[in-house]
Design brief:
The protein is built from eleven helices and 14 strands. By secondary structure, it is an alpha+beta fold. The two termini are about 40 Å apart. The C terminus is likely disordered.
């Protein structure tokens, strides 16, 4: 299992200049290699290998007057940029052929010197963590690191990143055993209903408030955006205003990321199984509530839950997005039908129970997740005991969809 550990860097002025030069050389090698690959493909449909590109775009280019400044930086990040280009092309071809799952990947594009986020990657030959805590980078020197936690094992690579706010970070890649972060077994099971009024509501009745990170800083962001728009393009004052605005956006992103990590970790520590809905976040982010949905960042939260569940030895279950979790009574199964968004509580006309809409949805999500898990276990058991010459295997009698009334009443109590 490979993990990333990120730390803040504090380079001095000469080191910032050397890092800027490194970023520029990495960008130039990437663009040169991409241009040659595009030209070769358009000419006779041939693909240039990474080894040949390294000879042309790095070794031979250093001897030319136009690219002699490539020799002023370490060759390791330049070679890594060519490997990244190979990976980008591989991802594109795998996506087109269907071997790569998920969203479609596009062709690699040229990098611009006006991009405010720059990065360079070093392998073990070009960096070292000093005993005193400084990070040594080849041809740059020792950079101060703010160590928020210790590295569990020696890292295999480090990526130095400069973000739009002018901050520097070191992203270390470490490889651990799959059971290195396993948590003790927990007894709880939780269904999670995501929303905007409350960020998440669990089947235990716990409601997690929605911090609304962007909304809380929206006034400050508008003020800084107006100040930026008044500055003359290309001026030093405009650059300062842009950094201030980027800094505010970075604070929003940092607060959101910290909340998502803490919430996902807490839910997985307390529960052995978590059940969530498979939301179409991209579709919701194009509706009337687009700003609030994007601010909530449900997609990132679900990805964190899924990844940490694998790491911690927890079970992560996703139910169908079309499952009517907020319309069913978790006690008797009566369906009330579609509800307006402002209706937060309702009474069941079958059993008379009074339900909080979000808690009822979380209970239904948990019950559906348990049903799906049981069906999967039954199918797996039948496949092990009755499978004959790859014959079709079907599960037996369906398990009831809804939780029994006594279970629901006990959870509500």
């Amino acid at each position: 299992m490979k993990l990333r550990y990120n730390y803040r860097l504090y380079p001095d002025a000469p080191q910032r200049e050397l890092l800027a030069r490194t970023f520029g050389c990495v960008r130039a090698v990437w663009n040169d290699a991409l241009a040659r690959r595009k030209t070769a493909w358009k000419a006779d449909r041939t693909q240039i290998s990474g080894t040949e590109l390294q000879k042309i775009c790095i070794t031979a280019a250093k001897r030319t007057a136009e690219r002699e400044w490539l020799g002023q930086v370490s060759p390791v990040p330049l070679q890594q940029s060519l490997r990244d280009l190979d990976v980008a092309y591989k991802n594109f071809f795998d996506s087109v052929s269907g071997r790569r799952k998920g969203p479609k990947m596009g062709l690699p594009v040229f990098k611009s010197r006006h991009d405010h986020r720059q990065s360079a990657r070093f392998n073990t030959n070009a960096f070292k963590v000093r005993p005193g805590g400084a990070l040594y980078l080849a041809k740059i020197g020792e950079i101060e690191v703010r160590w928020s936690r210790e590295l569990p094992v020696p890292p295999s690579s480090v990526t130095v990143v400069k973000d739009a706010a002018g901050r520097y970070f070191a992203s270390f890649v470490v490889e651990l055993d799959d059971d290195a972060h396993q948590l003790p077994q927990a007894d709880g099971e939780a269904g999670i209903d995501l929303g905007l009024t409350h960020y998440a509501v669990t089947s235990d009745g716990v409601k997690i408030a929605n911090p609304r990170w962007l909304r809380r800083r929206e006034r400050k962001l508008k003020k800084l955006q107006r100040a930026l728009s008044r500055k003359k393009k290309g001026s030093a004052n405009r650059a300062k205003a842009r950094i201030k605005l980027a800094g505010q956006h970075a604070k929003v992103a940092d607060a959101r990321r910290d909340f998502l990590h803490q919430t996902s970790t807490t839910l997985l520590r307390e529960n052995q199984t978590v059940v969530v809905e498979g939301l179409a976040v991209l579709g919701l982010a194009r509706g009337m509530l687009a700003k609030s949905v994007n601010d909530a960042s449900w997609g990132a939260f679900l990805r964190l839950l899924e990844g940490k569940a694998v790491r911690y030895g927890r079970e992560y279950v996703t139910i169908d997005r079309w499952y009517s979790s907020s319309q069913l009574c978790p006690c008797c199964g009566w369906k009330i039908g579609k509800l307006a968004l402002d209706v937060r509580e309702w009474d069941c006309q079958s059993c008379g129970e009074h339900h909080d809409r979000d808690i009822a949805a979380a209970l239904n999500i948990l019950a559906e997740g348990i049903r799906l898990r049981s069906l999967h276990d039954v199918a797996a058991g039948l496949a092990d005991t009755r499978n004959d010459c790859e014959g079709q295997v079907r599960p037996g009698e369906a398990i009831p969809t809804l939780a029994p009334p006594e279970t629901c009443a006990a959870r509500a109590a």
